[in-house]
Every structure is written in C-alpha cells, then in structure tokens.
C-alpha cells in the first residue's frame, strides 16, 4: 500500500456524448463499488481542459479520451499511467509524445457483449436484404426480397481481437461458418479457420458477409481496398465496426449502387458526426449507424470498474491489463 | 396403393410473387425427389383459372393459394383434399363453402427457420433503437442511441404455434426471458411462462418487446388494441409477423410518434402491397417489411416435399398432418 493517496485526474469533453462523460456522480458510484481501493485515491474532475494544467502537476494517473500530448513529461512530472476511455488509440499514434515510463492502457474488452448483439443483428439484416428493403421503404416501394436462412453461410471477420471475437461469437450463434483473418494467422476460437492477413485475398472470396473489426494502424489503413472488395461474391455484404479508413468507402458505394454488393452496415466514418451533406446518408442499400454498435450506456461505469481492477494490479506492482503496444499501435 | 393415378391439380396466380408459383419445373424437381410416390400422380398445372374447370372435373387433390369456393362439390365431384400454399387461411373463412368430406391442409411449419432468423433480427433491431436510427438516417440526422445488451430482457410472444415457437427460439437464443400467450395457457417450450389469452393484460406490462404471431380469427381480430398497447412499458417495441388486423395500427402509429413506444417492425398489412400513399411508409420509428419475414425462396420446394409426405399418409389412409380446424379457423 502507498503511504499517500494516488492522484487520479478524470478529464472529459462536453463536446462528446454524455455517455462518455467522467462525471463526479459516475466516480462516486464507482468508488462506492470499490471502497477499499477508492480510499487510496484522490480524484479531480476536469472538463475541456479547465483545470488540466493544475491537475497534471500532481496527477499520478489520468483517464482521458484524448490525453494532452505537448510537453507531457514537463507538465505532468509524476504521471505514470494514462487510461483512455476508448478502445481505439489510432488518433494518438504515433506515440513519440508518450514518455517511455508512462503506461498507456485502453478500454479494449468493454465492447464485447454489445458488439456481439450488433454483429448478430447486422449479419441477419444483410442476409435478409434489409439494407435494400429499407432503401425501398424510403421510396415507398413494396418489393419483397426473399432469402434463405443464414445457417451455414460464411462470415469472414477481419481482425480477431475483442471486437472480432464478439463478431465471431455472433456468427457462431447463427450457426455460420466462421473465417478469421488475423495478423499472425494463428488459430483462435471460435473461428473454424484462421488466415494470416497476408492471405486475406484467399479468404474474401469465401465470404457471404465480411465484418471489419480491426483497429486503424499503418498496416490496416486501406486494407479493404477497391480491389479486395472486387474479390467478394456477387451480393455479399459488409459490416464495419472497426475504423472507417480500413475500408475504401468510395469503392464500396460504387458496388452498392451497381448491386455487385448486396448491402452494408457502417458504424464508423472518417468524420463523425457524419456531415449532413455526406452522400453516404442516401447511398442505396447502406445502413448508417451513428457509432453505436459497440457502446453500452453503462460504458463509463464499466470503464471505471475495469480501471479499479487494474488499479489493484498497479498498487501491487503487477503488470496492467490492456496495455497499448506502441509498436503495433493497439 | 391405388389402382389408378391420383389427379393432382396445381393452381397458381401470376399476380402473386414468382416465389409462390407452382410451376411444371418445380413439380418435376419435386417428383424426382419423391419418385416412388410421384409415379402414382398425374398432374395438371393451371394459371389464373385458365384450365381450372376442366381440371376440377377429375381432380382428386388440389394445391392452391386461393381455392375456388362456388359450387365446389358440383364442379369438383372427386375432390378429396385441398392443400393451401400459405399457412394462414383467414381469407378462406368461414368454411361454409367447404364440403365436409374435403380435407383442407395448410402449409404451417414451413416458416420456422426463416421466422426464427427474422425474429432474432427484429428483437435486436428494436433493442438497439434501429427503427429510430433509420428514421434519423432518412433525415440525415446523426444521433447516437445507446442501449444495453438484450440478454435478460423480456419478450412476450402472442400465439405460440409454429411462428410463435420460432419467435420463442429467437428470444431464447438471445438469452431473453420468454413469456408466451396462448389460447389455453398450457405450458409450452421454450417459454419460461405461459399465460392464457384471457390474462394477456397481465403479460403485456412485462414486455420489453412483443411479437405477434397469431393467425387471424374472430378471437384474435383487434386483440392488440389501443388499450392493450397502453399497457406496455414506455419505450417497448412490437413486431407483427402474424396478421395485420390483430394489432390496432392506428393506435400503434400514435404511440410511435409520441415516443411512448420505442419502435416497431411490421411484416403484415391490411392491404398488400402496402399502397404507396399509406402513411405507414414514413411513420417514425417504424420498419416496413414487405411480407418477407417468414418466407424462404425454396418455399414451393418445401411445400411440395411436405405435400409428398402427406400424400404417403393419404395413400395409406392415415390422418393427414396440418389439417385446418374449421371451427378454430387455423
């Protein structure tokens, strides 16, 4: 145990959805759930930088969606650990701003149950031709589209971390064939087959539906290119719950309009909120999800619970969970 | 075995979707799958009544979505069995046109696998606020709606025949609590609890989501009335894959517009195709499915397979499966 209290600074932006706000109330509720640990913590709560520099002077730990990066060591001499509120840290990369002795942890794993529901839904929507049905509804057009049950069809999941495995559980719950595409190609449950990303071009033609779940890194940017979309079966569908720049949306749009692809469900976009004048809003056979597929309204409660579990490890000098690998970028 | 061939007349309407057409090709394929039985059958194929009266003169069996009802005994002196292509026979009720010695069978049970997929999808869509998300998409409005996972929430399934049990399997696959409402209230798997319809008012307030699957009969018409919709929790959702007149759509619309109900997915309408000027097309938080939730494109193949199984029973003098109860109306 430490002799003096650990200073934790919680920093939020009012520009983000209230779902992600680290409020005094959320902290108080979490501290109550983790009393023995919480008594070792002194907390400050900041908004859009209002008390940030003051807080950094003494903070040991910070929870933040977008940590300050300029002169961090100088401004925060005692800082040892930054916890991000999100799972993706692509917006913080490259990590040259991050002193070697500050540990960065992300919120990977918080999204599993919700992502599984979302992927189950999206797979069934794509199989039932819902993106086209919904396009027809916008145009008051009654046009029955009949489809066989989803059982036995093939899902190809790109990336098989927490989100990818949730997508995989969804496919298995629907009795689908499941191919995972990962960096190493090492077999991982519940996939039936795992391909290394170097052989992705062999996996894509087998897909009835592709689910993209990868973080955005130098390796994944543009991975699902126009050429690779061209490898898909006619009528195949695509879901993206990873990051937008992994998929060529312009090429995807062309294939949705032409009918080469049957439908898509996108949860992530280059610019969020998606601007009102984006042509994606009215692209046929495309469902626009406003970045909600993987987020539970209890998000911050769960983040703080996970953080407290890591705090216990931290205080005992054990390795933390969810450490971001600076080299891999996730 | 019979000494002479059985005359089967297949009658279709070109006004209906090709999915439901009893074509020579479909018959030939089915006859190949059931060779020993098929060699006892002589078949005629008619369209919109073109050879109907001729065929009826000698037909023993007829498969038809909408059998001729005027002077049937006189026109079809040998007719012993009518198989309908659909599951619902409400459009044929009352059954005073049907001679007592003609057996009417429906296609109940053909819809299970597809209905299970559709209900799984619709439950997840309602839980994720998709009807509202899709309304927002129509208006190019980015508005994140966050929801907790569906596990543990409660589905109330109205009617627990083939479609209802498929809906029930969907709810159970999603680890939901499942309440069935049936005529008798007798416990039926996989429901956790079964209520008789006389106590439906006790079941509805427990529902996060209601799935209506009942056939249309004198008892079910108007069952989900404005008053009963008023028993639902705020934000509850509704799916109808049964028959439109079971639910008061005008009252449902009011509750969707006011936000009292969170969303609805409707697959059945008073008039189908739904007319282009129907206000339902643009009702907020409402997904319009063009009567596709329970139909597999292999529909006629499956119908004929089921019919051949019944033919074997017929030829052996055994009781047929799927006999419509004239009194109950399904």
How would you summarize the topology of this molecule?
The structure is a homodimer of 330-residue chains.
Chain A: E1 6-12, H1 24-33, H2 35-38, E2 41-47, H3 52-58, E3 61-64, H4 72-75, E4 81-84, E5 103-105, H5 112-127, H6 130-138, E6 154-158, H7 162-173, E7 177-182, E8 193-196, H8 200-203, E9 209-212, H9 226-229, E10 236-240, H10 249-258, E11 261-266, E12 286-288, H11 299-315
Parallel strand pairs in A: 1-2, 1-3, 3-4, 4-5, 6-7, 6-9, 7-8, 9-10, 10-11, 11-12
Instruction: Give the DSSP E fraction of chain A (strand runs of 2 or more residues).
Output: 15-25%
The chain-level mean pLDDT of chain A equals 95
How many individual helices of chain A?
A: 11
Largest sheet of chain A: 7 strands, parallel
Query: Element order, helices and strands of chain A?
Result: EHHEHEHEEHHEHEEHEHEHEEH
Show unreliable segments of chain A: none
Top CATH class of the largest domain in chain A: Alpha Beta
Identify the quaternary structure here.
Answer: homodimer
Number of E strands of chain A: 12
Give Rg of chain A in angstroms: 22 Å
Determine the structural class of chain A based on helices, strands and strand pairing: alpha/beta
Strand order of the largest sheet of chain A: 8-7-6-9-10-11-12
Approximate helicity band of chain A = 25-40%
Kindly report the greatest chain-chain contact and the residue count on each side.
A-B, 53 and 53 residues
Alpha carbon gap, first and last residue of chain A: 31 Å
């Amino acid at each position: 145990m430490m002799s003096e209290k650990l200073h934790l600074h919680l920093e939020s932006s009012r520009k983000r959805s209230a779902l992600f706000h680290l409020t005094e109330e959320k902290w108080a509720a979490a501290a109550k759930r983790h009393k023995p640990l919480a008594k070792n913590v002194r907390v400050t709560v900041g908004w859009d930088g209002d008390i940030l520099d003051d807080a950094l002077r003494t903070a040991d730990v910070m929870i933040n969606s977008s940590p300050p990066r300029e002169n961090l060591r100088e401004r925060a001499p005692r800082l040892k650990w930054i916890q991000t509120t999100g799972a993706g840290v692509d917006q913080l990369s490259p990590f040259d701003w991050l002193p070697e002795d500050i540990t960065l942890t992300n919120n990977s794993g918080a999204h599993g149950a919700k992502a599984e529901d979302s992927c189950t839904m999206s797979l069934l929507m794509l199989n039932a031709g819902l993106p086209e049905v919904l396009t027809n509804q916008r145009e008051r057009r009654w046009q029955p589209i009949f489809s066989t049950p989803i059982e036995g069809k093939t899902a190809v999941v790109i990336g098989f971390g927490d989100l990818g495995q949730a997508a995989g559980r969804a496919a298995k719950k629907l009795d689908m064939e499941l191919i995972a595409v990962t960096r190493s190609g090492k077999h991982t449950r519940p996939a039936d087959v795992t391909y290394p990303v170097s052989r992705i071009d062999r996996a894509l033609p087998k897909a009835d539906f592709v689910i993209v779940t990868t973080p955005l890194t130098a390796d994944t940017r543009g991975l699902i290119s126009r050429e690779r979309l061209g490898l898909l079966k006619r009528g195949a569908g695509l879901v993206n719950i990873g990051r937008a720049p992994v998929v060529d949306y312009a090429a995807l749009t062309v294939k949705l309009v032409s009918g080469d692809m049957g439908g898509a469900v996108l949860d992530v976009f280059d610019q969020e909120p998606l601007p009102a004048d984006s042509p994606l809003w009215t692209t046929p056979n495309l469902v626009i999800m406003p970045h909600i597929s993987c987020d539970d309204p209890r998000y911050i409660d769960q983040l703080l619970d996970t953080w407290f579990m890591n705090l216990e490890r931290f205080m005992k000098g054990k390795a933390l969970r969810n450490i971001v690998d600076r080299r891999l970028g996730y």
